[in-house]
Specification:
Chains A, B: This is Maltose phosphorylase. The structure is a homodimer of 774-residue chains. With 774 residues, chain A is of the alpha+beta class. Chain A is built from 19 helices and 33 strands. Chain A has a domain of 254 residues: Beta-galactosidase, Chain A, domain 5, CATH 2.70.98.40. Chain A is 31% helix and 26% strand. The longest helix of chain A is centred in the middle third of the chain and has 24 residues. Chain A starts with a strand and ends in a 6-residue tail after the last strand.
Amino acid sequence: MKEYLKHDEWSIIEEGFIPEYNRISESIFSIGNGRFGQRANFEEQYSGDTLPGNYLAGIYYPDKTKVGWWKIGYPEYFAKVLNASSWAGINIDFDGEALDLAECKVEDFRRELNMKEGFLLRTFTAKMKSGRRVKVEAKRFCSIVRDEIAALEYRITPLDFSSPINITPYVDFDVENEDSNYDEKFWVEVDKKVKRRQGYVTAETKKTAFQACTGMKFSIEQGGKEVDFDAYRIEKEKYVACSVDLACKEGETTVIYKYAANVTSLNYKKKELMDRCKAAVKEAYKEGFQSLLREQAIAWGNKWEEADIRIEGDVAAQQGIRFNIFQLYQTYTGEDERLNIGPKGFTGEKYGGSTYWDTEAYCFPFYLATADQSVARNLLVYRYKHLQKAIENAEKLGFTDGAALYPMVTMNGEESHNEWEITFEEIHRNGAIAYAIYDYIRYTGEQEYLSEYGLEVLIGIARFWAQRVHFSKRNGQYMMHGVTGPNEYENNVNNNWYTNYIAKWCLEYAMEAIEYVAQNHPERYQEIEEKIKFYRNTETGKWKDIAGNIYLPKDDELGILVQHDGFLDKELLTVDDLKPEDRPINQNWSWDRILRSVFIKQADVLQGLYFFEDHFDTDTIRRNFDFYEPRTVHESSLSPCVHVILGALLGREEKAYEMYLRTARLDLDDYNNDTEDGCHITSMAGTWMAFVKGFGGMRVFNDTVQFSPFITKNWQSYAFKVRFRGYYLEVKVAGEQTQIINHTNKPLEIMLYGERRELPANGTVEAAVVHRQG
Amino acid sequence: MKEYLKHDEWSIIEEGFIPEYNRISESIFSIGNGRFGQRANFEEQYSGDTLPGNYLAGIYYPDKTKVGWWKIGYPEYFAKVLNASSWAGINIDFDGEALDLAECKVEDFRRELNMKEGFLLRTFTAKMKSGRRVKVEAKRFCSIVRDEIAALEYRITPLDFSSPINITPYVDFDVENEDSNYDEKFWVEVDKKVKRRQGYVTAETKKTAFQACTGMKFSIEQGGKEVDFDAYRIEKEKYVACSVDLACKEGETTVIYKYAANVTSLNYKKKELMDRCKAAVKEAYKEGFQSLLREQAIAWGNKWEEADIRIEGDVAAQQGIRFNIFQLYQTYTGEDERLNIGPKGFTGEKYGGSTYWDTEAYCFPFYLATADQSVARNLLVYRYKHLQKAIENAEKLGFTDGAALYPMVTMNGEESHNEWEITFEEIHRNGAIAYAIYDYIRYTGEQEYLSEYGLEVLIGIARFWAQRVHFSKRNGQYMMHGVTGPNEYENNVNNNWYTNYIAKWCLEYAMEAIEYVAQNHPERYQEIEEKIKFYRNTETGKWKDIAGNIYLPKDDELGILVQHDGFLDKELLTVDDLKPEDRPINQNWSWDRILRSVFIKQADVLQGLYFFEDHFDTDTIRRNFDFYEPRTVHESSLSPCVHVILGALLGREEKAYEMYLRTARLDLDDYNNDTEDGCHITSMAGTWMAFVKGFGGMRVFNDTVQFSPFITKNWQSYAFKVRFRGYYLEVKVAGEQTQIINHTNKPLEIMLYGERRELPANGTVEAAVVHRQG
């Protein structure tokens, strides 16, 4: 855990340069616009430790699998969102001496991620080896208004000398991914152009043959006036630059404006790319930096108006939640159903930028409640379009007859991951994909989704579970052996309660969905039956038998559900028994030690109780929470949010608050000591969920939205807005008073603290905060 | 399964050239002398599919670990016996046309591995692309008399043309390992010399800095007379050759004799290497091919005289067992305690030529009974010398206070393997290492070994088990979670019966050993106590508690020991339920499917019953055999032998014979479809063990050797010899009559079919074969 960032309501601020933290800051200060994004690498060259990162949404490379010991069924490739050209690079030198912070004494270093207006600002004074001192102020952003465009302003002032200055803005596709399996570079040059003040490179990815063009145009001001300059044009493999030599007077500021664009073959024909890029760059150049920045600020203002969560009285918590919301909107806008949400977004390479079950289990509710309904729907359709690949994926593992196993990690629907205990065994992911369909319909009421897309997915998943269980004669029950549950600190266990339970639920929900579509859309139902060769009675007969007779481990003495067979045979320590030097255990213990310990990485039984809260009474939830939470080390970023929600449900307000802070400031405080790899983007949605479902107590059951807000005594007030079926609602809690405000022109019946309340059009209902018993 | 080799009592014979089987034959026809060895690659160039393989004992390279997902505790390197220079290479061309069987029509191709005399012979007639036909006869061997020397005779005759012939014998260290993790070459050149008819290259391994010098000298005969020739000397990086141009008449045979030597820095100072190599080559050259071959035949004759197993009436079985014995003696002679037995010996790269538990569990009894006592002792001392590394290895996994975990795979005592479920969890290997000490003392009576070396190893191992178990309060017993038993088709299971049982036994045996050394060698005991900071009462108090209260899963209803927790919850199919296309399952099923299936790769519970036969009554063994054997797919080469021995014990003579054939001809018939990677050397010792302990019923208990031989009706007779405590005994079974012959000048009391018998000096006892009830 590190706490080197300043607390501020609207900005992330780093003061002072700590080279050892540079990779962490590069992650945290990342900027993006859903279409592309980049880590906070410096504009000028930097020979110190850095992880260059520039990513283009949907542009990936199937890197050949690297594995010690091959197992049948492993994928041949791991699809990775690959590093692209930096659009922001500008090399600076004075009289032959390069500006490179690794070679300077750095003073007054400050980085600010201005979340309110959506830009990154960096200022510093550097004393170079020669003794010369220069002051720099660099501001940049990726436009969310014009999502192909980015711009920067780079102000540089020699403080105590005059000398020639060389300014070299460039575009460079000769980049590598640090996690490339075989130290390969993934781009090949297609075309490039360079003129006096602009340059373009089009490059193509190997194998996948995506093309991208990154271009730039720049202007320079000195003494407040635009400079006319000559430039040497530099061309190298996959690289263009313009090199400008100017004189530079002591105390006079040189300002470089660099305008850039990124366009890809995902959106344009390949042969048009460079022209499209030029047009975008030209548009940005014409618009000008200040004007682009103004519209950026306005656009972010609008987003905040809708999506902000305001907390009074706790700057750290306020900053944390805004950082999460900001990064989520920088990562995924939901406009393009081909895209999804990588665990690190545009902030790092790790996990390859691919899609995990995180999307359905953690990100889905955020987009459902804060964005247009089409955004969540696009996330579902993304999986529908991968159904055939999921069936092929299951076939590789010996399944037949249309059984579908969605991949653990994917870009294009094919499995990318290659650890047998995850790839082949962490199959509960299939359940989350079904659950998201259920969640979508529950939230939106759009039952029709079943007939259009949902049913086929649900049947494919149900078929998988029906084949994956076995009947244990000895026990007279169906069982599921050899799985990894959500708690990845257990591998290859038998009868993981969560997996068995969600399998049972999937079978039942699929049968409901079949019933619904068959009754309400008989023709469509017929079509599906034929398309997927579905033998309704035979198949659902089997499903019913399984759902009714699947083994769900529980312990009557403790009154809890049992994580998996044998779990209670362990040494039942709690996290308090761990020594500080043991934590995080995944950085200190060998894998076998982690596995045989009782410690839980992330919610497992509790994940199930969170999903299926309405299936269990509060006492059951409480006993399980009290048993499992103290044994949970939360070394997955996805863990705390579930504990906030259940903690809140049980009235464990302090526990909920503690967990909430941990998830909200996970990256800002580098809790898990891994933010250098990138930010935990998908868990940020979990943070939002923790807030709204935890503190806000928001639920949707029986077509009715419910709230049961409470407030921690550390806060004076908080407020958030949600969308619900065409309504736009605001929840405000101040002191011990709750207000629900309807920002819509129609009334709505809601549940508040368990009571039915009429919320008038554009009106408000109020109530005193009800605290549950802790 | 393939059956393309001819059945013959003394030779392995391939007739006809099948390029697709070339790698298999290259493995099977390998030759070696314990110091070096090589696959049966052709002398002349071959552009078809081939796995070049030339290995020098003890010369390895730590190849950087390749792994998809790193886990704490993984080794950074995998130590591999690396490919070295071929000593046998000779390129041949006629008038510019290279002789290359991949480019020829091959007739009358025949390979013969003459096991009786220890040489490899290859003959063929090749029709070259130009239409020219040549006949070749190539014979070679690695001398077991002079273990640095090898020699070959290459006879080549143009059948229907006269032309110039170019002959180019070479030494070439510019080789690569096919399984190199990063496509790296491991040798760098140190020195080389080439003269008119000889050449030498000294090369050094990267990182480990071993040096090896391979040298050659050759002569040529035509028309039965030695030819005087000039040679172009060719030098390239790590390569020397002599290129000789001669005329060659239709029907006239050109004979090349190439004499070679391999010497390494394991045995000489580096700076002496080339001189030592020259001296060895000179000696060989002077001795001449025929003379060297004669002494080779005599030496092999002597080995066979001692170690042969003779079977009358079953050529396939006879050939199988001789092939096993032959390969074992080619691999390990036991003269050098720094060496050990790699799973593939000198026949392939796979498994890196490293040491596995195979040595203790399967190879040990073979060397114990057929070689000088010092050989088995050297195998134990090898592990003693690795004790410190085993302690460090355990420390990496969180163990303390001198607990020792021997590596799964090792060359120098450090762990090489990198699969968590094996490296960290297949810990039963520690038990086998303790068991070998017990086995050695039981067999030889040399109790003193404990005080010299054994005790420290036993205490280190006992300390490991004492820390590895945990106390399950709920069950009031010690348990061991997260292990992989000998059956590697189960990973990360809880309470593997075999592992728990051998852990218990190790604790008890360590306590016995302590008692013995403390009483009989009090000073030495004191010294050990101080050296390893052993707190006898505290530690053994704990050990006693564990040994007395460790959970050993069993099922009263079935009357069996249970392989591990949950095993009986599986779908309890038997191998008969498998479809032919499913087998071998490890080549057809994904790993999760294998894991959750009931099918057993190799003896697990039965391995324990084999080791501790005297702890269980026959009914228990029978019930377990009848339960587990039908569920065993024997996809480890180490599996059938244990089933032969137990099957024989239970009177399942047919089952024992079936299993025996499978192990004896495993490579000859390519049972597991993997002989192309190399022969299963360590399992060959298991075959011997299967014969002697299975058919021969040999045991040693209470300082007495026991026999209970039976014979399958497929054989007329068999005979084998064993050494036992200075005695030299022969067991002969013909028809229904058993003879035990004492080839020693002193009488011995033995047990025959459970009865005490006096075996006179140089005398015989006889008995009718007793068949156990099947």
